[in-house]
Design goal:
- It comes from Sphingomonas vulcanisoli.
- Keywords: Iron, Iron-sulfur, Metal-binding, S-adenosyl-L-methionine.
- This is DNA modification/repair radical SAM protein.
- The protein is α/β, with parallel strands linked by helices and 414 residues long.
- It folds into three domains: 265 residues, Aldolase class I (TIM Barrel), CATH 3.20.20.70; 48 residues, no CATH class; 78 residues, no CATH class.
- The protein has 15 helices and ten strands.
- The protein has a six-stranded parallel β-sheet. Strands 1-2 form a two-stranded antiparallel ribbon. A two-stranded parallel ribbon has the order 9-10.
- Helix 4 packs across helix 6.
- It is globular and about 70 Å long.
Length: 414
């Protein structure tokens, strides 16, 4: 490998890290610097160029330790047989970069992943050393997310959890058959076992914290995972079922979806084109339906078409409502929270405001309209003090009425 300076390595390894979608965090431990030392305290929040639950936009240094790898997964641009420029950071270089970027106010935390070099244990040791040095040598109080390796020694994963806020293990693909076809060197059973062990360790540590105040934190922001969408033949229905099972079995904080991107010198088993980015967006919306809106996986899957795919021209919540017209309209002044959450166009905050406001007065359509972006989407699905929707029995007619009309784009716009 040619000798590269730090700037060149950063250019290569930061670009290689863009395929990792799972760099958001929430629910981590709060840390402060009241003892007169430590840096990077952000009150437990740190999201890579996104928004924290309190609305702040904050960022992580998101890099790979190396893009060299001993595995040859078909879908991965960093696979062993890929013709890409390689680079590798030492643990000390990653630590210095993190501290330097933080002191320049560029970042508030670190997301570190890696290809596998030498062995899983060796790679995991290097990643743990980065986190250990930041915490112990530099008293770094910011957010750290480590992408762990399923077949690494469990003791190394345990050490990682003592230093990192969140750990994640990628399931790679939605189905076992897809993993066997595109990443035959990886084992679905091994990945599942590692995720189960990590869940048990997090549960044990939480129990210890309830019993003993002095017990150390272990991955206080929990674990997450990521799966690639569009590399195999899995339908959206398959992906929804897989994600639901992961949430139930491993108490994950998040399942992230990454749309497959065609890579140079690709294997013949891979598709020639990437899936529409809107498909990834619709899957995230379906994920929120299960996590925050009370839909079961079977109900979310009911929003798919005959081929098991979510519609791209509307969100899955609206698609579900159009297929279940018998559940609507609902009375905004009488409906339960669960019923209101199923109204297309109403989010969790809007529903909370409705429940609070209607204690004091009967709500009109204009009152609800102030809480949402599109009143046109809402009107067919609810009854207000001054509004009762016209009956539309044909779902196709209703879909046509509430779907935004196509507009001719202008060539010359001021």
């Amino acid at each position: 490998m040619a000798q590269l300076d730090t700037r060149e390595k950063l250019g290569i390894l930061a670009d290689a890290a863009k395929y990792d979608a799972s760099c958001a965090s929430s629910g981590t431990a709060k840390r402060n610097s009241r003892d007169g030392k430590g840096l990077g305290s952000t009150e437990g929040m740190g999201i890579c160029h996104a928004y924290a639950p309190d609305g702040r936009c904050i960022s992580l240094l998101k890099i790979l330790l190396t893009n060299s790898c001993i595995y040859d997964c078909h879908y991965c641009i960093n696979r062993k047989s890929s013709n890409v420029r390689r680079a590798r950071f030492t643990a000390e270089e990653v630590v210095k970069l993190t501290i330097a970027f933080y002191k320049r106010n560029y970042i508030e935390g670190l997301f570190l992943s890696s290809g596998i070099i030498r062995s899983s244990d060796y790679t995991m040791e290097q990643m743990v050393e980065v986190a250990r040095s930041l915490r112990e040598n530099h008293h770094f109080r910011g957010y750290i997310h480590l992408k762990t390796i399923p077949d690494a020694d469990p003791e190394l994963v345990h050490l990682a959890g003592l230093y990192a806020d969140r750990l994640s293990i990628n399931v790679e693909l939605p189905t076992v058959s897809g993993l066997a076809q595109l990443a035959p060197e990886k084992s679905a059973e091994q990945i599942a076992g590692a995720m189960g062990d990590l869940k048990s360790a997090i549960d044990d540590q939480q129990d210890a914290r309830r019993r003993y105040r002095s017990a150390p934190n272990f991955a206080p922001a929990g674990q997450s995972t990521q799966m690639i969408v569009g590399a195999d033949g899995a339908s959206d229905g398959d992906i929804i079922a897989s994600a639901s099972g992961l949430y139930d079995r491993y108490a994950l904080r998040r399942v992230y979806y990454s749309a497959f991107s065609p890579i140079p010198d690709a294997s013949a088993v891979l598709p020639l084109q990437r899936p529409p980015l809107m498909r990834e967006h619709r899957l995230y919306q379906s994920d929120w339906m299960m996590r925050f809106y009370g839909y079961s996986p079977r109900e979310v899957a009911a929003a798919t078409d005959d081929s098991g795919m979510l519609p791209l021209d509307m969100d899955p919540k609206l698609a579900w409502a159009l297929k279940h017209r018998e559940s609507f309209p609902v009375d905004v002044n009488r409906a339960t929270r669960e019923q209101l959450l199923r109204v297309p166009g109403l989010g969790t905050k809007a529903v909370a405001s409705i429940l609070t406001s209607r204690r004091w007065r009967r709500l009109r359509l204009d009152d609800v309209g102030r809480l949402t972006v599109s009143i046109a989407k809402i009107r067919p699905f609810l009854i207000a003090a001054d509004w009762t929707p016209a009956r539309i029995d044909n779902g196709a007619d209703l879909r046509l009425a509430i779907t935004p009309k196509p507009k001719q784009m202008e060539l010359f716009v001021a």
